[in-house]
Amino acid sequence: MRIAMGNDHVGLELKPAIRDFVESKGHEVVDFGTNSSERTDYPIYGILAAQAVASGECDLGIVICGTGAGISIAANKVKGIRAACVSEPYTAKLSREHNNANVLAFGSRVVGVELAKMIVEAWLDAEYEGGRHAKRVEEIADYEAGCWDPKEHTPHA
Ligand code: RB5
After folding, report:
1. Closest ligand 1 atom, CA of 10?
2. What is the rounded CA–CA span in Å between residue 97 and residue 133?
3. Residue with the nearest Cα to atom 6 of ligand 1?
4. Ligand 1: which residue has its CA nearest to atom 5?
5. Do 99 and 68 touch, CB atoms closer than 8 A?
6. Does 66 sit in the ligand 1 pocket, CB within 6 Å?
7. One of 9, 27, 58, 65 is an active-site residue; which one?
8. String of b and e for 82-91 (b: at least 16 CB within 10 Å)?
9. Which ligand 1 atom is nearest residue 67's CA?
10. What is the DSSP string of the chain?
11. Residue 14 CB less than 6 A away from ligand 1
């Protein structure tokens, strides 16, 4: 697969090792930076990587900042992106199987390099299951497209 990667200056602490790991698993990495330790802004790199996934240039994306929170919030502003911010492999795996997450986010100040590799491996090896999960993922897409309103679908309210 072609994997888009994006990170800020804090995420750069983990990015080279993760880029090497992804490549060692046979994937191609498209690196949107930053590759400088100079202070910068995570939305730039989160959105660039997310745009590459949304356009189809890349199959999936991996984004890294200090916590994973800021860069996942930024990536999720790109239409069609489902970015999951995770800190362990179980959620990483299920974010693909159930939520069809197309961007993975984590924090270089939250996870160490070996745990980050386990997270990435679990995520890349998992596959979207569809089935009962498809309706929920479609509801998110329909809300984004402006044609679904949860106020009209609240059976337990
Ligand atoms: C940068 O200091 C830091 O705020 C950023 O890497 C990230 O953690 C934001 O969510």
Report:
1. 6
2. 9
3. 66
4. 66
5. no
6. yes
7. 65
8. bbbbbbebeb
9. 8
10. -EEEEEE-TTGGGTHHHHHHHHHHTT-EEEE----S-S---HHHHHHHHHHHHHHTSSSEEEEEESSSHHHHHHHTTSTT--EEE-SSHHHHHHHHHTT--SEEEEETTTS-HHHHHHHHHHHHH-----GGGHHHHHHHHHHHTT---GGG--TT-
11. no
Of 122, 22, 125, 25, nearest to 6 by C-alpha is: 22
pLDDT for 153 equals 86
Q: How confident is the model at residue 155, as a pLDDT?
A: 73
- Rounded alpha-carbon distances, angstroms, from residue 71 to 56, 86, 127: 20, 12, 23
Q: Which stretches in the chain have pLDDT values below 70?
A: 157
Cβ neighbour number for residue 40 with a 10 Å cutoff: 16
Token pair, residue 1, equals: 């697969």
pLDDT computed for residue 157 by the predictor = 61
CA-nearest residue, atom 10 of ligand 1: 70
Both tokens assigned to 92: 């990483």
> Exposure of 2 by Cβ count < 10 A (0-12 exposed, 13-18 middle, 19+ buried)?
middle
